[in-house]
Amino acid sequence: MTNRKKLPNVLTLKQALIAAEKGGYALGSFSPRYTPMIAPILRAGQALQSPLIVQISHRELVRYGITPQEFAEEFYNCVESEAISVPVVLHLDHSKKLNTIAQAIEAGFTSVMIDASEQPLEDNIRISKEVVEYAHARGVSVEAELGMIGTTDFVETEKDEELYTDPQEAERFVRETGVDALAVSCGTAHGIYMVREPKIDYERLMAIRALTPVHLVLHGGSGVPAEMMSKAIMLPGGGVSKVNIATDLELALLEALGREERMTNSECRGLSAEQLEVGRAAVQAMVADKISHFLGSAGKMQ
């Protein structure tokens, strides 16, 4: 891990999700996609006294031209310079590359996700268990995925196939891998819903939780109606504790800037001070809206 001093409010994913499930809310796992947009995410959490997660995926690192070290440095610099005191997590989202996971842990990420969901169950278990052993030895939490989550946004994942998570397989997967959180496929998709309507299979979520106490993660939070998400969070016995939100933030940024095409990280960093201020305000407003009306995490600092 990086030599940076440990900040008391930067938690592992496991620590943060225990508090979220106990408090009856979900943690927003927000992907800024551009390093200048990390600050407004943290500002929104601080203003609303909401814990949150800042994340980036392997494909986003590649697409936007960022290294794990650069992302982590910006995150920690912002936590300190913005005097952020709410609990926060630095999370590596979808990664199939073990070397990327190792780089993220070395850079100071407190949580990583291994996504071997395209592999047969036996291979997914083997690969995920290997990552758990590596990360846990370094004090880092691990999220994995079982089932395949569809997509409308190929920045996140390569395929639009969907395969719902089997509760019996989930019980075995969690027991044999020791993962701290499990991303499940139950109807949502990465990106914005253009054709099909979002849906959540609540019975499937409850069946998974009936067999395993693992914290559940819902990917593809952008575009899901608030009332639908609230029900998933408040399911009896423990519902969804982490919700990934990425596309909504980027769309808010691009709309505020009057752009349609995505940028690279270096292009974003090259924006004028005025443009950055406008873009950051839009991202902060979007995160604040999700915290207040989608996740139920406002005022849940403790």
TrEMBL record:
Listed binding positions for Zn(2+) 1 are: 94, 190, 219
> What is a GO molecular function of this protein?
zinc ion binding
Q: How is the cofactor bound?
A: Binds 2 Zn(2+) ions per subunit. One is catalytic and the other provides a structural contribution.
Q: Which keywords describe this protein according to UniProt?
A: Metal-binding, Zinc
Keyword Zinc attributed:
yes
Q: Where does dihydroxyacetone phosphate bind?
A: 191, 220-222, 244-247
Annotated residues that bind Zn(2+) 2 are located at 115, 145
List this protein's GO terms for biological process. carbohydrate metabolic process
**Keyword rRNA processing tagged:** no
State the needed cofactors, names only: Zn(2+)
Q: Which Gene3D superfamilies match?
A: Aldolase class I (3.20.20.70)
The record's active-site residues are 93
NCBIfam families for the chain: cbbA (TIGR00167)
Q: What is this protein called?
A: Class II fructose-bisphosphate aldolase
